[in-house]
Design goal:
Layout (H helix, E strand, L loop, with lengths): L5 E4 L3 H12 L4 E5 L10 E4 L2 E4 L5 E2 L3 H8 L6 E2 L5 E5 L2 E4 H5 L6 H13 L15 H8 L3 H15 L9 H11 L5 E4 L4 H13 L3 E4 L3 E7 L2 E7 L4 E3 L2 E4 L3 H7 L7 H8 L3 E10 L9 E4 L4 E5 L13 E8 L10 H15 L7 E13 L22 E3 L11 H30 L1
Parallel strand pairs: 1-2, 1-14, 2-10, 7-16, 14-20
Antiparallel strand pairs: 3-4, 5-9, 6-9, 7-8, 11-12, 12-13, 15-18, 15-19, 16-17, 17-18
Length: 438
């Protein structure tokens, strides 16, 4: 392989965004992805004519990922979820209107909920307080009615995939809820998220990047506090001065000798991964046709019929849908795959009774990691990366390296941060060399 300026380890969204930015800036870059299929947790698989993402995926309009994808020229086609929402409350599925006007919601609660929703878009989620207190602390202080708080706990859980109200910062979480209430604020992507990955890869190649699939990296070598080489899985060694590691944090630590003596160890120790259990289904028909979005109020679940917004996900008029259980309910953070699958099936019995007779394809993903870390009060370093201070030339990216972004926004934004900081450091290094030579 010819000599290149930068190596990117990992062919997911963070790595491909970084590769695009570097190649567009005129740098020679190679992307190493150990799998034959690029995308990481953003891949899409086909089962009996149905396109399944790894669980429910949604792109929030106006977020970092949406902005970056559009700047790179990606075509983001698809549709928005139905505004006709049902809820699960006390083991019953009912229209949102019936829940709001039922006996469990008082008139004062309805008025408070309407007021909170009316002012939601005006709340400044970036001020200092909103990035220093937890979801629970803010909701308990700002909302008097417990039913109103229940609704907002459910909205935050759904928007961030995180069930940790005592740890999660309110600012980033509430900003995600704000986006979801905008017109067409959420996009279900036509063709699944693999279409995003394929476009990012194609754009990177067209910009001049070398994109190598089935090419793993065994170690990132460094001497004297500087990156110097890559050890590849095929036994080759590659001399390199700049590396972006865009793989999960634990994998980055494995690749780095003496990672325990660097900031990587701090970031690893403080990280709190978020996981979910997902039941993805393709059904011939919907037993309850108008029930396309169901929000769990007192159950940590969310159901979405994505084919309602993007019919291309299935053939022959079938329907692709996702039911998600958010782990960590009541702070437990534990899961039992068999119990979770049975629980999700029982929830489906309530949401779409008779669904078992209509199954074309199914996919159950137990304890699937959604993000490697998020903005929470236990973070010692609130903004990890993109540089690893102890190793010059090493940069990190991934959804765990959030600086306030949520989910895929954190992945895309961290990839861009790493590329921009690397480009700046290369420029500064060239200036120093020029001054010394002069």
């Amino acid at each position: 392989m010819r000599k290149v300026d930068v190596a990117v380890v990992g062919g997911g969204i963070a790595g491909l965004v970084a590769a695009n930015d570097l190649a567009r800036a005129g740098k020679s870059v190679v992307v190493f992805e150990k799998s034959a299929q690029f995308g990481g947790r953003a891949i899409t698989v086909r089962k009996k004519g149905a396109l399944f993402n790894l669980g429910g995926h949604a792109l929030y309009r106006g977020g970092s990922a949406d902005t970056i994808f559009q700047e790179l020229g990606l075509k983001l086609e698809g549709g928005s979820p139905s505004r006709r929402v049902s809820v699960i409350w006390k083991n019953r599925v009912m229209p949102l209107s019936r829940f709001l006007f039922g006996r469990d919601m008082s008139w004062t609660g309805r008025i408070e909920l309407l007021r909170m929703l009316a002012k939601l878009g005006r709340i400044d989620t970036d001020n200092g307080e909103m990035t220093s207190i937890s979801v629970r602390e803010w909701l308990e202080r700002e909302m008097r009615d417990p039913m109103v708080r229940n609704v907002f706990y459910a909205l935050i859980r759904t928007g961030t995939f995180t069930q940790a109200p005592d740890l999660q910062y309110i600012g980033p979480a509430l900003r995600q809820v704000q986006r979801s209430f905008r017109k067409q604020g959420v996009l279900y992507v036509q063709g699944g998220w693999q279409s995003i990955i394929d476009q990012l890869r194609e754009k990177a190649v067209r910009a001049g990047a070398i994109v190598a699939g089935s090419a793993g990296v065994e170690a990132i070598g460094h001497d004297g506090g500087e990156v110097c080489r890559l050890h590849l899985s095929n036994g080759e060694t590659m001399e390199i001065g700049y590396v972006i590691s865009a793989v999960p944090l634990a994998e980055t630590c494995r690749l780095i000798r003496d990672a325990g003596r660097t900031s990587l160890q701090v970031w690893k120790d403080q990280a709190r991964a978020v996981s979910v259990a997902c039941l993805d289904l393709c059904l011939r028909r919907l037993p309850v046709p108008n029930r396309n979005v169901v929000l769990g109020i007192d159950q940590p679940v969310f159901f979405s019929n994505q084919s309602k917004a993007t019919p291309s996900l299935a053939e022959d008029g079938s329907w692709v849908m996702h039911l998600i259980k958010y782990n960590g309910y009541n702070g437990a953070g534990e899961s039992d795959p068999k119990k979770d699958e049975a629980f999700l099936e029982q929830m489906m019995d309530r949401i779409q009774p008779g669904w078992r007779k209509e199954v074309v394809a199914r996919q159950f993903l137990p304890n699937m990691t959604v993000v490697g870390d998020y903005m929470h009060i236990d973070r010692i370093d609130k903004t990890p990366g993109p540089v690893v201070p102890e190793i010059r030339g090493l940069y990190v990216a991934g959804d765990w390296a959030s600086h306030g972004e949520v989910l895929v926004d954190a992945a895309a934004a961290s990839g861009r941060r790493a590329a921009q900081r690397l480009l700046q450091d290369m420029q500064d290094g060239a200036r120093v060399y020029s001054a010394q030579a002069g």
